[in-house]
Amino acid sequence: MLAAHKAAQNPIPQLSPSLCFNTSYLRDFFRTSRAQLDDTINTSLNSLLTPSLTSPFDPLSTSDPSTNRRGKQPIPSDTCQDFTQQTVFPTWSARSRVLSYCSIVAASPDPDDPDRTVIEAENMAQSHRVINERLDPYSGRFFPKEPRTEMLGSLLRNENAVENIVRDRTWRILNERCVGLDPAQRGWQEAFKTWEEQQRT
Predict the structure, then answer these.
(1) pTM of the model
(2) Which domain of life is it from (predicted)?
């Protein structure tokens, strides 16, 4: 079962500046990765419950909403640990690597920006403009074209914010469904950091 979950992960794309500046692809990568794991976390956890772990079907359960159904069954610690370390954390790691790499790209000089000449020309023209807002209220307005590094940085800040929200939710659901997953209540940040350090050793 875990193998199926691992196979469903979208692999990390080849890291390069061209990847980062392809913002449509970048958005699709994050959206698809979250859809395959975090958005469907309850379904994935339900699939971890094998028939031997669930109660036999009770016909009365269909008329009793308080009956503890499969979706509410606690999942054993070992099963959850395997799922978290083999599926959840690797998927998060892939997204973190893209975010970290592209953040470096966004903060670096970009002499290959195809709009660089246009931006420089606009800035030069603006520096020679005569601004008289009494005669023309709009003469002081100037909306320069953003360098692609700035647009990338804005996208990454948004994706980082979404990532934190998504991981908080996933970790909360994992702890609600799993037995003893995070007994020290470290939170996903500490647990994920520990896992990453273990991968480097």
Answers:
(1) 0.72
(2) Eukaryota
Nearest to 145 by CA among 112, 113, 122, 114: 122
Long-range contacts of 118-126 (CB under 8 A, 24+ apart): 118/145, 119/144, 119/145, 119/147
What average pLDDT is seen over the chain? 78
**Neighbouring residues of 37: CB distance < 8 A, sequence distance ≥ 6:** 8, 9, 44, 87, 88, 91, 170
- The 3-state DSSP class for residue 151 equals helix
Predicted confidence (pLDDT) per residue in 67-86, tens digit: 344 456 788 889 999 999 99
Query: 10 in helix, strand or coil?
Result: coil
Strand partners, 75: 178
The token pair that represents 179 in the structure block = 């037995």
